[in-house]
Amino acid sequence: MSKRPTIADVARLAGVHKATASRALNPEADARVSAATARRVRTAAQELGFTPNTAARSLRTNRSSTVGVLIPDLTNPLFPPMARGIEEVLTRRGYTALLANTDNDQAKERTRFEALRGRQVDGFIVATAQREHALLAQAHAQGVPVVLLSRGTDLPMFPLVAADDATGMELAVRHLLELGHRSIAHLAGPQTLSTGAIRTRAFQQAVRAAGVAADRAPVLVSEAYSVRAGEQAARELLDRHPGSTAIVAGNDLIALGALHVLRERGLRCPQDVSLVGYNDMQFADEFQPPLTTVHVPHLELGAEAARLLLEQLERSDGQGAGRGAGQGLGRAGAGPAAVAVAVAKTVLLPVRLVVRDSTAAPRAGSEAG
Questions:
Q1: What pLDDT was estimated at residue 3?
Q2: Which of 75, 126, 251, 359 matches a 20 to 30 Å C-alpha distance to 274?
Q3: pLDDT digits (tens, 9 = 90+) for 248-263
Q4: How far apart are CA 216 and CA 218, in angstroms?
Q5: Quick one: fold of 7-52?
Q6: Residues 47-73: pLDDT tens digits?
Q7: pLDDT of residue 369
Q8: Taking every annotated instance into account, which residue ranges of this chain make up the domain HTH lacI-type (predicted)?
Q9: What is the domain partition of the chain in residue ranges?
Q10: CATH 3.30.70.20 fits 62-162+298-348, yes or no
């Protein structure tokens, strides 16, 4: 059996020192090598079929070069772009993302979290946060490096990367007001999630600032960000507030459920009821009619979360923490000092309104009275 090529073999073929070859093949150190040298080393490595020994590197650095990523529902079209953004940034830095789907189940989430800790991941990117979240509170107390993605906690324990939901909802309401609507309902997302609570609060502030009476701006809460929950909330809305001429949905799946119910009730969109979604998920432009919605940069959200976590890990290395998220957790007395945790800052990425065919001016006379 042929001998596995070593870094020394690569260095010899590339005509460089062994340390130079090692730096050129390390995404965290390749900036210290000229571009021409790095190319020569990579070419030599490819020619020899050399792959870096990540296990040996982990022993030297006390890092696994892996990151745990908790996703609430991989069937939701919003999350795969986030995961891709995470992976693109981590891969460039020599890290691997270990993805875990929780199905919005807290017991499953804890099991996945503990399993990833057992794999000695260096940190976590968590898109499953509830406003009150016992698992995250425990992780914070134990000093686990975490960045929250899209959804935050009421107590700002960890850095958060999210969309500017308050502005997004303001854009949606302003669009409908400019079309002439004065009976605008909100089918809100779950209020246990920061996205649902923030968007609801922003909707209420926007209609109030415009002088829309509270009884003409009802809010009905969907139990989940799903088509079925959207259908249930839309039926309740049309039963209780049949005069609503426009709906702002908490997300595009809720909006799709509302579309189903409008057809079920013999109502046309946008001629009878205008509809605005939120997220601009894939295929929103294929809805019938194509959906006006707030565009959220999901890939960029994931990428920024990965960058924030890497910064956090580098900072902990500089302070001598030097261990992964799976090491030393659960010990008596393990606290925030065990692993350096960055200041819990929030990064909000800009959103924009995408106007399509699901919104139009209200029918003449429909806003009377």
A1: 74
A2: 75
A3: 999 999 999 999 999 9
A4: 6
A5: 434 Repressor (Amino-terminal Domain) (1.10.260)
A6: 877 766 554 454 445 578 999 999 999
A7: 40
A8: 5-61
A9: 7-52, 62-162+298-348, 165-297
A10: no
Q: Do domains 62-162+298-348 and 165-297 have the same CATH topology?
A: yes
Q: Which of 350, 352, 296 is nearest to 82 (CA)?
A: 296
Cα Dmax for the chain: 87
Element (H, E) at 262: helix 252-264
270 upstream amide cis, omega within 30 of 0: yes
Q: Reduce the DSSP state of residue 123 to 3 states and report it.
A: strand
For residue range 153-167, what is the model confidence (pLDDT) as tens digits?
999 999 999 999 999
Could you tell me the CA-to-CA distances from 318 to 60, 153, 186, 314, 343 in Å, in that order?
16, 28, 48, 6, 15
Helix axes 134-141, 106-118, angle to 10 degrees: 30
| Angstrom distance (rounded) from CA 264 to CA 261 | 5
The CATH fold of domain 165-297? Rossmann fold (3.40.50)
85 in Cβ contact with 301 (< 8 Å): yes
Q: Per residue in 169-215, pLDDT tens?
A: 999 999 999 999 999 999 999 999 999 999 999 999 999 999 999 99
| 276 neighbors 258 (Cβ within 8 angstroms) | no
User: 173: part of which helix (H) or strand (E)?
Assistant: helix 165-179
Structure tokens at 363: 């029918």
